[in-house]
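Run log // design_07
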């Protein structure tokens, strides 16, 4: 990628823009790295991030967006683009595809991504469906704790849970250390019934996993499932066809064996609900953090978007993901699996 890209930094004149084309948003002040020396070293070794080339790499991605995706309404500031470069180990082409899919996913599922603000998911936060544990794991990963049993389907649709998860990921990924270290998911399926499991069909599974694998700049280092009932075999049967091998290998099913969980997540960082010594599970602090970020989310996600976004078009499904028609067929098969497991 050429370093001689300064000419592409300038905003095109109004005369050169078509009627429906808007100039890129103005760029904020320059990026200042907040990583510790230890994390700089980790990013170099694991993500191929070279501090001396960092801004050159960001500019290269910015130039690609302006040249190849002139209609894509996206932030082009250094810190934002760095998320995508880190998530794809500074491969420019893969980072660009991730950025396109990031925006495409948001436009293709309005039930989740319309009104993307914390106040819109107050009921989810109040239910205790999710939280982020106060301590990180030994690798520095934040731990997102999900408790599906707290969801009452008659209170609100499952898409509200997904919106709350997405808002949480957006908040977490703002921190550079999370961009480097990634996150861990701890899912407690205690008490999940057949009726709840039936809401998570192949269509929802395809959407959610498509976002996590190919449409969001975050590194998921592990998914630990605890207290899963027999019905979880049916749930996992829905999920597994959409998982890439790398992600599938990061799923760990512990059942009620908390000692097994503690081999990966030490007791010192876990609440007592999971055999830890970190006190009771705190469901309020993270809710307060999200709700305090309301203005930031409104500014970033709740502004009008031009109808013409031709670069997005019909973005192909990530490799290996079935079509909607295949999902319909899968749904009939999986429902029978759910009932047999139950």
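design_07 sequence
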């Amino acid at each position: 990628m050429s370093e001689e890209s300064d000419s592409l930094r300038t905003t095109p004149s109004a005369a050169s823009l078509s009627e429906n084309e808007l100039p890129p948003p103005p760029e904020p002040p320059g990026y200042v790295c907040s990583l510790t020396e230890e994390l700089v070293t980790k990013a170099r070794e694991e993500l191929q991030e070279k501090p001396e080339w960092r801004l050159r790499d960001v500019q290269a991605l910015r130039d690609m967006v302006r040249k190849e995706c002139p209609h894509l309404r996206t932030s082009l500031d250094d810190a934002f683009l760095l998320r995508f470069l880190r998530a794809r180990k500074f491969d420019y082409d893969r980072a660009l595809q991730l950025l396109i899919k990031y925006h495409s996913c948001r436009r293709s599922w309005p039930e989740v991504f319309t009104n993307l603000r914390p106040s819109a998911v107050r009921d989810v936060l109040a239910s205790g469906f999710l939280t982020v544990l106060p301590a990180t794991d030994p690798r520095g990963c934040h731990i997102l704790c999900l408790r599906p049993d707290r969801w009452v389907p008659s209170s609100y649709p499952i898409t509200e849970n997904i919106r709350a998860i997405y808002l949480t990921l957006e908040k977490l990924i703002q921190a550079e250390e999370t961009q480097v270290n990634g996150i861990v998911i701890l899912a407690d399926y205690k008490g999940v019934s057949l009726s709840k499991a039936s809401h998570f069909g192949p269509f929802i599974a395809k959407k959610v996993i498509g976002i996590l694998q190919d449409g969001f700049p975050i590194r998921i280092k592990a998914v630990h499932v605890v207290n899963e009932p027999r019905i979880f075999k049916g749930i996992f049967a829905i999920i597994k066809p959409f998982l890439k091998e790398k992600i599938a290998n990061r799923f760990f099913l512990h059942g009620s064996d908390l000692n097994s969980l503690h081999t990966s997540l030490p007791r010192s960082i876990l609440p007592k609900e999971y055999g830890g010594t970190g006190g009771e599970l705190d469901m309020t602090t993270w809710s307060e953090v999200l709700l305090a970020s309301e203005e930031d989310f409104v500014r970033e996600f709740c502004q009008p978007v031009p109808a013409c976004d031709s670069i997005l078009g019909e973005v192909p499904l990530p490799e290996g993901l079935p079509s909607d028609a295949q999902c319909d067929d899968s749904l009939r098969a999986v429902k029978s699996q759910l009932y047999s497991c139950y």
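Confidence is low (pLDDT under 50) at residues 1-20, 306-342.
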